[in-house]
Amino acid sequence: GKGTGDMKKTVYITRKLPEEAVAPLRESFNVDMWTSEDEPVPRGVLLEKAEEAHALWTMLSEEVDRELLERAKNLEIVSQLAVGYNNIDTEAAKEHGVTVTNTPGVLTETTADLAFTLMLAAARRTGQAERALRAGEWKSWTPMGFTGQDIFGATLGIVGMGRIGEGVARRARGFDMNVLYHNRTRKPEAESMHGFRYAGLDDLLRQSDFVVVLAPLTDETRGMIGERELGLMKETAVLVNAARGGIVDEEALCDALRNGQIWAAGLDVFEEEPIAQDHPLLELPNVTALPHIGSASIETRLAMMKLNAEAIADRLEGRTPDNRVV
Ligand code: DGY
Q1: ipTM > 0.85?
Q2: How far apart are CA 85 and CA 274, in angstroms?
């Protein structure tokens, strides 16, 4: 640290991480870490730490913006514990010569599992049914109680056919689903090898029984699913968002769910996280809501952290790290 005369570079970690994930950095670097696992580092503390740090190991809760990057005179790398990095101003990072890395690949299957979980849970109303059971509302087996939509044999439309989208599509084959996808670029291999079919967004929305959003949040995708798009969907359709809240217009979604324009939604992400307790979405029985747990398996989270630690060590020791986005 400052004034101790030692020449080690400083790594600041914005959340309390398991010691086994951090240990590999301790020998070569000064490791400093926010004290809480649950609460994000306050902005003021982050700015102060960024002024000294050579590396920042960040979560999506941190705004790594131009102001921060301008103050971070020593900074060589921002390594983000996520595949998405919409919280980082990559343009400003590039201008300041700061490398940015993320954690792709290792979280693909885990996140695809969770997206599929949300499809099943929203279609079969499992959250609503469990809440009723726990509230003592289970009086008897009922002929039409908690009846939902079938997944097996239905049409699935994937919006954003990256690694995770393909993972969901592969799972869907086991449920005999008909898979459509929409993406910036076509995926010839997904089409020829697996029989997934490309569709324009409007066609996909009209034809799908399940629409699963797995695109990154960019200027292009912000608000991509709004009132008009929801209006194209079937009244029996289920919308799943396991990507970023900002891609779906929440006000329009609330209206569509309330008015029976679509049937249900399964959401792992929200425009504001954590979502406010009194948010209108949480008052709707046909919403299955999860607190952004897409990549949350023990093995995957530790694998993500390993990628971050390796990238930080590589950059600070003069090697070129993997998984650079800048
Ligand atoms: C990601 O990886 O982008 C998730 O949203 C956070 O783990």
Answers
A1: yes
A2: 17
Ligand 1 neighbours (beta carbon < 6 A): 60, 82-84, 107, 294-295
3-state percent helix, strand, coil for the chain, nearest multiple of 5:
35, 15, 45
Handedness of CA 181, 242, 280, 142 (dihedral sign): positive
Please indicate whether residue 76 is annotated as part of the active site. Answer: no
The H or E element spanning position 66 is: helix 66-71
Classify 69 as helix, strand or coil. Answer: helix
| Count: domains in the chain | 2
Mean of the per-residue pLDDT values for the chain?
Answer: 97
**Which among 91, 95, 130, 273 is annotated as catalytic?**
273
Q: 């900002």: which residue's tokens?
A: 246
Does residue 230 share a domain with residue 121?
A: yes
What share of the chain in percent tops pLDDT 90? 98
Same domain, 224 and 311: no
Q: Would 135 be classed as within a structural domain?
A: yes
Please report where in the chains the tokens 């049937």 appear, as a residue: 263
Same-domain pairing of 125 and 218: yes
Domain annotation covers residue 322? no
Told to judge if 273 belongs to the known catalytic residues of this protein, a careful annotator would answer yes
Angle made by CA atoms 127, 172, 119, in degrees to the nearest 5: 15
d(CA 10, CA 18): 18
Active site residue 244: yes
Q: Please identify which of the residues 125, 292, 301, 315 carries the catalytic annotation.
A: 292
Closest atom of ligand 1 to CA, residue 295: 7
The reported pTM is 0.96
Select from 248, 288, 293 the least CA-distant residue to 270.
Answer: 248
Residue 98 belongs to domain spanning = 10-106+298-316
Rounded to whole angstroms, how far apart are CA atoms 119 and 240?
A: 6
- Give the C-alpha separation, 3 to 9, whole Å: 13
- C-alpha 3/C-alpha 178 separation (Å) is 64
Question: pLDDT tens digit string along 228-278?
Answer: 999 999 999 999 999 999 999 999 999 999 999 999 999 999 999 999 999
The atom number, within ligand 1, closest to the CA of 103 reads 2
